[in-house]
Amino acid sequence: xxxxxFHRGPDSEGLWHDQAKAVYLGHRRLSIIDIExxxxxxxxxxxxxxxxxxxxxxxxxxxxxxxQKRGHVFRSDHSDTEVLxxxxxxxxxxxxxxxxxxxxxxxxxxxxxxxxxxxxxxxKKPLFYTLQNRTFAFASELTALxxxxxxxxxVSPRSLKKYFAYGYxxxxxxxxxxxxxxxxxxxxxxxxxxxxxxxxxYWDFVLEPFxxxxxxxEEEWGEQLRDLLQKAVQRRLxxxxxxxxxxxxxIDSSSITALAALSLGGEKVKTFSIGxxxxxxxxxxxxxxxxxxxxxxxxxxxxxMERARNLLPRIIAxxxxxxxxxxxxxxxxxxxxxxxxxxVALGGxxxxxxxxGYDPFRALRLAELYEMLIPRPLHQGIRMAMSLLPVSHRxxxxxFKIKQTLRGISYPKHLWNPVWLGPAEPGELEELFQEPADIxxxxxxxxxxxxxxxxxxxxxxTLQFYTKLYLQDDILVKADRASMMNSLEVRAPYLDMELxxxxxxxxxxxxxxNGQTKYILKKAxxxxxxxxxxxxxxxxxxxxxxxxxxxxxxxxxxxADHFFTNRYFLGxxxxxxxxxxxxxxxxxxxxxLLGNFQINSEFQAPNPx
Length: 609
Prior knowledge:
CATH superfamily of the domain at 3-156 and 168-201: Aminohydrolase, N-terminal nucleophile (Ntn) domain
Helix content: 40-55%
CATH architecture of the domain at 3-156 and 168-201: 4-Layer Sandwich
Strand content: 5-15%
Largest sheet: 6 strands, antiparallel
Number of strands: 16
CATH class of the domain at 3-156 and 168-201: Alpha Beta
CATH topology of the domain at 3-156 and 168-201: Glutamine Phosphoribosylpyrophosphate, subunit 1, domain 1
Structural class: alpha/beta
Shape: globular
């Protein structure tokens, strides 16, 4: 199991077991903090508590001071891992509420005979578990978990449907039946004696807008945002190994670069970006402009799409579980190039979700107006008319946006967001799997976020979808897998606990305001970044998969079992795409990736029964 995760921790391995109790703990280490004294599994001095831990605790210095004042004696110089042991002894299962960081950890109590597992608030670090065949097992990766001889890994047909509905498999589900992801913000306590487990949520992202506005929100909230983001960046510069910053030239990465330069004083910030030969996908000139402003040590790699495409089998083989976000490819390349120079990098993940930065926020009011004015029986006819628009495979082309928007509006509001982003819409799922689609079950996670939102407006409901579902199960999974494949640790200042707690209280009409996405963040950063960087159009981090399929440059492996029987349906989609009649890039990419995932991994088809 640990060998399967060598890439997550190439620096050392630690193993411990108690054969009498049948408790086994293993750890692979990527050495970042306290390189000499942070080996794991780590035991408390009295031999009662043991921890295996993946992640970083950014407030470990403050927690250490607090614990020492309460009589705790540390053996290490500055290990954040040891803070978890003393913190658990002091606060018990309330420990995660004291932590600011990213983590997946397990603490074994040899006296109480329990295992306490926890995952950070947004699920930046993965944690899979299963209870089957009188075995409780857990791991940072699904592939490692399936190496356990007592763990069966049969593919879940329900998860495959969700994969085609969302483009990823939402927590707590996984690709396999009876294997689960511990959701972000959750704890798990397993009693070894009774073989029982209990899961509970210790934190949730709740939108609670301030009841009163300051006299000048742009100025007062802006100052608070800058201060909190500066502190978040400063915390994440903590490292005993070389560190850098991802820099795309967008507002999120540019702000982190600027604040890192400020925090480091005279020390040069190392920045990293990826450029592409195809103009509509390339942002490297913006990144270079920001690097010049802040005099960073900038590294940029310009890659051909052909070279990038040839890496896909290698990436898919390490993917752990299929995910249909094609930006995984440039993200992997960025991490690979960055790892040649540093071991830790800061990234901009979370900014779009917290501050309403995505294009669908611009479509919400128009979509509501469309739904109100256009009778539903006419929706399909309008979609058919718009389908006649010429297909373009440029990055975020207007025809693609129009068609995706109309597709989502064809369904009830609570399905707009997943259908806008997903590879297959409900009707297509029924044809794909040749059976009725239980929409309430397939989209249960999106419906839960819509109905469970504390605020009764479409912008907040959409914010909640992006922050609690899309961020955790797509964006952060992509970031973790792409970085760990390359043994690189990536940190997300925008997901700092104190910053998030403030942002969730800013009313939605100050995040998306008068047609401007990220309004309050942009205002906050005006003293920090040039106007043309803050207010330039969002490009996204994509690859031309639509063009690849149109030209036949991506082909399906002959021996892949696609798990559904309607091959005619998919064959028709391929034909329409290649002839320029329609743009099915999302559906084709998800199906192509799943087929290649099966061939390039130890993945087995589900039992037809």
